[in-house]
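Exercise 7. Predict the structure of Histidine ammonia-lyase from Streptomyces benahoarensis.
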Amino acid sequence: MRTVVLGTSGATAEDVLAVARGDARVALSEDALAAVAASRAVIDDLAARPDPVYGVSTGFGALAVRHISPGLRARLQRNIVRSHAAGMGPHVEREVVRALMFLRLKTLASGHTGVRPVVVETMAALLNAGITPVVHEYGSLGCSGDLAPLSHCALTLMGEGDAEGPDGTVVPAADLLAAHGIAPVELREKEGLALLNGTDGMLGMLVMACADLARLYTCADITAALSLEALLGTDKVLAPELHAIRPHPGQAVAAANMRKVLAGSGLTGHHQDDAPRVQDAYSIRCAPQVAGAGRDTLDHARLVADRELAAAVDNPVVLSDGRVESNGNFHGAPVAYVLDFLAVAAADLGSIAERRTDRLLDKNRSHGLPAFLADDPGVDSGLMIAQYTQAALVSEMKRLAAPASVDSIPSSAMQEDHVSMGWSAARKLRTAVDDLARILAVELYAAARAVELRDGARLSPATRAVVAAAREAGVAGPGGDRFLAPDLECAYAFVRSGALITAAETVTGPLA
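Solution. The predicted structure, encoded as tokens:
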């Protein structure tokens, strides 16, 4: 099993995915533990002084005006965790919670938060034991960090609340800690605040969405190529010299992918055989432009994620010169914006894929294919309602593309009077990513049936490999009407798992 070693310089997207999805173990470098101890010494020194320091000897948020005496400070740190663990709604997915915990540990290990080494060591122990705190869907405004989600994680660190064990069973956190020999942490000055003041939830979901969307953009190039072939379209629009004169990097990548997939096809370029057709429809001809713009948006999102992965997000922070300063780095705006941008790009990719599917099913626009790709149109309805399902998904994606990051609601008695809603942006993006995979699955299902009805022997080697792999995976081919839902779910699994890309790459080599 892989081990991810956290130092003082942050983490990588690959680290997040390894821990969140691959259950990689987490270790702390000696440098990180030394930096944590050094920053804690600064906090201990401040705690011994009479001067008020936010998070050390004061209340929080709008209550920061009250000075807290030394005898009440441990209670103060416990109380902030308990009171802020106020989430409601369904449980958040295990991979999201593991990403959340790992990214908070990443900041704690930076040496800028002032927690004791025992805090970071215990959080690493929770991850390595496969203990996952119960975190709820609602509670974060994406400013002052993902407060409620992180508080539920901190509650487990204290041995309180509920958590999920390695077997998926939810039990009291105290029982799980005891079963794994992990002592609950007794929080001291600053530590409760440090555990819950970061953008870790929205960042974790951004990293995972970027990984998922990268695969889906490659899938979309393959399904677009298959649809182009089924509609007897021309691949001349994919020529590199055409894309070089509009030098958007993502556009060139999408066109190159489609060229590789279509190489050797005997079906492309016959768009004038049945009726004059000077140009293919936009959904075919402009596929690289739309997918390319989405890829460029994805590159920007990755840049923001990488910057955030290198950040230490807390308030106040311990600086390298020993100063402890309040700041606004916990505001989730940078992450929230790109989460919203990705939802817009994903919705448009879903929309153009649905338009290609609709064209495949319409006998007036499909250039000789049977209505709805039915075996006996009229007796059979073919894929008519599969396109309805696809259209419903596209409509939902358009609703999910409405930005969350513009919807600030003031909180904490107007002390926190502008918030990012980044957690909400991340939650809706996760739904949009899954919707996109289903939309592409319907296009794959329709286009694969269409090319076989056309002339499967004239397919390009790559699309022939894709169709063969889909059939081997259980995605049904042409024929009379059948119970479609299981077939579509099988196509979805074929897309979501990456099997679609693997099949194409057996012929094309690596696709971008």
